Known about the structure:
Oligomer: single chain
Shape: rod-shaped
Low-confidence stretches: 62-66
Distance between the termini: 110 Å
Number of strands: 0
Largest sheet: none
Helix content: over 70%
Number of helices: 4
Amino acid sequence: MKELLTFALNNPALLVVPAVGFVLSLFVVRIKRRYVNEGILFRRKPATERDHDASKSAEKEMNSDNHIDLEIALRKLHELGLEDGDLGYAYWHAVGQLLKRAAGMQAQIDALSKELEQLRATRPRPD
């Protein structure tokens, strides 16, 4: 045991190099999390913020009579995008945007249909 301690003290690189390597690996993992997972590198919002914003905008756009919860579908599309890499993410993000736009258009259609029914009800009918 004494010889091992003497050897380690005579060769400090055997202690310093692994410690520096460990610190650098922690640094690399932090950079990866910040730039890739949180979206800074590819200029996109963090996943939780993007899902939260998507679900809020979809809820605002949907009519209470025809309410469909898009949060599950948008979350699944986000997961598919993360699994497929950058090109897959761009594709599934576009699909999610189309889904949200379709929900908004459906809400507009419902609102216009109600307005049309109200106008027809107030218009006198020719007999």
